[in-house]
Design goal:
Blueprint: E1 4-11, E2 15-21, E3 27-34, H1 37-45, E4 50-56, H2 61-68, E5 74-78, H3 84-87, H4 93-105, H5 122-133, H6 145-154
Parallel strand pairs: 1-4, 4-5
Antiparallel strand pairs: 1-2, 2-3
Helix pairs in contact: 5-6
C-alpha cells in the first residue's frame, strides 16, 4: 500500500478543483476535472492507498456522497460555515481545495450527516408521485397533492 491520501474537493456545477496530500501532509497533486460521475471515478481510481476525501455541503453533496462513498476509506462532507480557515487569505477554487485537504489531514473538519443514500431514487419519487395522483389519494380538502408530495420529500 502506498499510504494514506488526503483529498480536498472544491465542487462546482461544471468543474471540481482537487488537491491531494500524501501521508506526510505534502501536496502531491492538483487537478481540475469535470463534474461528471465517470470523470470523478476515473480520478479516484487512479489514486493508490487509503483515500480520505472531503468536500463542502452544497448542491452536489448528496449525489457526490453516494457516488464516492463505496470508493474511499473515509468521506467527510463538511459545513462551509464552520470552515473559517477557508475564509483566510487568498481565495480561489485551487486554494480552497488545498485548504480542505489540509483540514482533513489535520482532522479539523466536522462532518455533516449523510445517510447511505442522500438522494431518493427516481423510482421512489415516481412511485410517490403516482400514489398522490391517483383519485382519492389526497384526503385533506385543504391541501393539494403537490403540497403533500412536497411534504413527503422534506421528511
Amino acid at each position: 500500500m502506498e499510504g494514506t491520501k488526503y483529498i480536498g474537493m472544491d465542487v462546482h456545477k461544471d468543474s471540481i478543483s482537487i488537491a491531494v496530500l500524501n501521508s506526510s501532509g505534502k501536496l502531491v497533486m492538483e487537478s481540475i476535472i469535470e463534474t461528471k460521475a465517470i470523470t470523478i471515478l476515473e480520478f479516484v481510481h487512479g489514486l493508490r492507498g487509503s483515500l480520505h476525501l472531503t468536500f463542502e455541503e452544497g448542491t452536489w453533496a448528496a449525489w457526490l456522497y453516494d457516488l464516492l462513498k463505496p470508493h474511499v476509506t473515509k468521506l467527510v462532507v463538511c459545513d462551509p460555515r464552520r470552515n473559517g480557515y477557508l475564509k483566510q487569505g487568498s481565495k480561489s477554487d485551487r486554494i480552497d481545495a488545498r485548504k480542505l485537504a489540509e483540514l482533513l489531514y489535520s482532522n479539523m473538519l466536522r462532518a455533516v450527516y449523510h445517510g447511505e443514500h442522500g438522494v431518493r431514487s427516481l423510482k421512489e419519487l415516481a412511485e410517490l408521485s403516482d400514489h398522490h395522483q391517483r383519485p382519492g389519494a389526497c384526503h385533506d380538502p385543504g391541501e393539494g397533492c403537490i403540497s403533500k408530495l412536497g411534504d413527503s420529500l422534506r421528511g
